[in-house]
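> Could you send the Fucolectin-1-like prediction when you get a chance?

Sure thing. Input:
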Amino acid sequence: MVAGLAVDGNTDTDYYHDSCQHNEGESNPMWWVDLGQSFSINRVVIFNRMDYGPERLNPFNIHIGNSYQVTLNPKCGGDHYIDVSQPSISISCQGMTGRYVGVRLPGTYRSLTLCEVQVYSN
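Output:
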């Protein structure tokens, strides 16, 4: 599905409302946004799909840096896990700087669905 749906300002967590991006069954699926220039990132908020399979997001990684090859950028923390009863999670990334912010699911044959990704700078 369209990657831009994860940054359209719509935090609706129902995939069928055309608000979520989706990658189907890939190894290490990833999504990223180019912020246009480097920023000091305070936190990243991720809105998960709630209408079906919210557990599929776990575990996930966040990469922040200046390489367009997002997996070469440092991770914000390690593996993150969202409480599947909650629609969103806020991850503190204080002190990290970068132009690219990526979300990656480590592992084989995983589906990545993101309903919104919000990036906050200092």
